[in-house]
Every structure is written in structure tokens, then in C-alpha cells.
Predict the structure of 2-keto-3-deoxygluconate permease.
Amino acid sequence: MAMESDKDLGGIRIKRAIERVPGGMMVVPLLVGAVIATLFPTTPKVFGSFTGALFTGALPILAVFYVCMGASIDFRATPYIVKKGGTLLVVKVGIAMILGVVFGRLLGEAPIGAGLFAGLSTLAIVAAMNDTNGGLYMALMGQYGRPRDVGAYTIMCLESGPFLTMVTLGVAGLSAFPWQTMVGSILPLLVGMLLGNLDREMRAFLGRAVPVMIPFFAFALGTGLDLTKIWQAGLLGLGLGVAVTVLTGIPLFFADRLTGGTGVAGVAASSTAGNAAAVPAIIAAANPAYADAAAPATVLVAATVVVTAILTPLATAWTAKHFGEPADGAAEPAEAAPVPERA
């Protein structure tokens, strides 16, 4: 019997609607969680059980998420991919470290309490700068770059998670983390990498779960936010998003050209991953010194995800137009399979 179409079934294309929003699979569930928490704050206590657990379960979901993400990273990446991805990784994290040192001296661990920059913190800045939107990067490289530039993200995946943010905050001279906590923050990713490289079937099996879990931990994160304070992220969130695209995009452009590229891949990496919105909560759970900064930082980073999802493609298209696309882009074979999309 022929399959009925979505229209015949009366289906509502919820997924497509969500994906029309930049970073939608992260941003929309996060906002839904925030709305429920703001208007119906007793919901998790009233329903309890699995419903209550979902409202407070961001960290366990993220632990599983990082195992699956790690499984998508291939140890056997080609030399070009290691050089390209490694360079972009070092430059992106290096910029976050420099800014972390500067703002760490000025702000310390606490957020700014009042005024135009209320809610801004070193934690928000570092978390927004550290992590690249992988799905966006790969989509842009598929359009403007070479196939092997897409594979470079297998190395850049190491940005994922709170580990490098912890390192950056430590380098900035702020409250340090015990070595056990730092190892624990990267252990799920390492376990996933081991499983994925020992068994290709495990890589495929775990990798498919990466995009599925994003809306669930995003919702759980959103339930810890108070929408009455989100207005503060308006211009400040916009400004932080512009800063990420500009302050990381320019150095990444030159780094890409130094490794034989046109600069397009570097600019395409000048975004913030949706997963980065989860980092402030993880950092605060590991070190209470960042507890006050976590909630406003989550809002600011979430806003940055949306802003960079709009600005980075525009900047990448402009770069490709003015600096040219690689002549061999269409004919060059892919050197590594791209990792699963990350919001």
C-alpha cells in the first residue's frame, strides 16, 4: 500500500518550523522551558517523577550527549584535516583565553550587577567565544569550501563541553577547578572517542543520537531561567554575538589563509554552538564561585547563538565573494566523513 503523505495524514511540520529559527533546536526548547519556569514555577514539584526529572536533568543528559559526540571524532583524520582543524581550534580557544585573562582581571568571577552591561561576566564571554557551531560550519563549507574543509570539524569537535572553558578560566587566574573535576568534564567525550574509534558501528550508533538530545538538555536548561530578566540580554546579547563573529572571525580568517585556505573556513568557524549555552550551568555545578554568573551567562550565550547563526553565514558569503572559492572545490574528494550536526 502506498504511504500517505504528510498532508494526507494532517501532519504538522513542527521540526521544519523549529529549524527555521537560527539555532532552533537549541533555542526554541530553551525558551519553552524558560516560559514554563517563569509562569508555572511549581510544575516540577506538582508532577514529580519523570516530568520533574526532565526539569532538572540537564547535566545527566549532557553527560550522555558528550559520549555520543566523542564517538563521532575519528582518530585517523588525514594530515590536512589535523592541520586545518587544529589551527582553527587553537586560534578560537586562544582568543577566548586572551579575553578571559583581560576580563578576568576586570570582572573576576561575578557578573556585572547593574547598568547597560548587567549580567555580563567573564564566564559568559569565554563560553560564547570557545565553541563553534559545527552544523553551521559544515553547511557553509559544503556551499563555499572544499570537502576536506568540512572534515576539519572532526578536530574542532574538541571544543565541545566545559573542559576548555575550565582551562581558560584557570589561565585567567580565576577560581580554579580540582583536577578530578576537570578530568570528569572531559571523560565522557574521551570514552565516546574510544568507543567510536574501536568500533565503526558504535560510532554510527552513538553519532545518530547527538542531534536528538539537543532539544532535551536545552529544555532542561531553560527551566532554570527567569524570563523577567531576559530583557537584559537584548542589546547586550546582540553585542556579544557581534563581538564573537568579529573578534574570532578576523584572526580565524588569517589563520585559515596561513594553512593554505582562502579564509572562508576561518570565517565559517566564527560562531557559537548551541551547546555552549549549557556550559555556564556545568561550570557553576563544578565550582560555586560561578553560581551568580551562570543564569545570566546562559541567557547571553543563548542570544549569541542566534546572533552568530545570522551573522556568520553573511560574513562567510562575503568572504567567499571577495577572496574567491577554491578552484578544486568541486572535484576534490572528501577525506573524512563529517561528524553529526551540532546546533
Summary: The chain has one domain: 58-323.
